[in-house]
Amino acid sequence: MPPTSLHIGQTTSPDREPGVDVPEFRRVFRRHPAGVVVVTVDAERGPAGFTATSLTSVSAEPPLVCFGISAGSSSWPHVRDAASVVVNFLGAHQEDVARRFATRGVDRFAAPTRWRRLAGGEPVLDGTAGWLRAEVEALVPVGDHHLVLVRVTATDLRDATPPLLYHDGRYHSLHGERR
Known about the structure:
Blueprint: H1 22-30, E1 34-35, E2 37-42, E3 47-52, E4 56-59, E5 64-70, H2 76-81, E6 84-89, H3 95-102, E7 115-117, E8 123-125, E9 130-142, E10 145-157, E11 165-167, E12 170-172
Antiparallel strand pairs: 1-11, 2-3, 2-6, 4-5, 5-10, 6-9, 7-8, 9-10, 11-12
Region (Disordered): 1-20
GO molecular function: FMN binding; riboflavin reductase (NADPH) activity
Domain Flavin reductase like: 29-173
């Protein structure tokens, strides 16, 4: 039987049971470990950013990555209007940064956040495990989120910094420490 194509925003196909339980869906992905990043952007209204665990490498040639962002996120209008973004890879020591950029209603760039601007004006966080600067290629509405496809134009990686991971509702390092 050939695969059934699923159009973006479609919730069921003839081969699937309708009505996936949303809390169960979320529980399944809480059990899937993911690296933690903060996406930062400035669409000429001041810096904005959010914590994400949805970063995915799409292609090496050309270098493309994507991430998801909720349509209801306060950062969405900034990402929607930006020409470029910075993906900041958080180190195991940066749980406080992950929590700050995941919190609504706070100035995420106020102290104690340490950051600077790249030559193109994009905000980049200091002390991270590394970062990617990327130009926005496509914004795709998908359910209650948008998929943001970006082309990587610059990278900076610090090999000695272990990454921050998210699994089962908690932050972790590769050494198994629960945070």
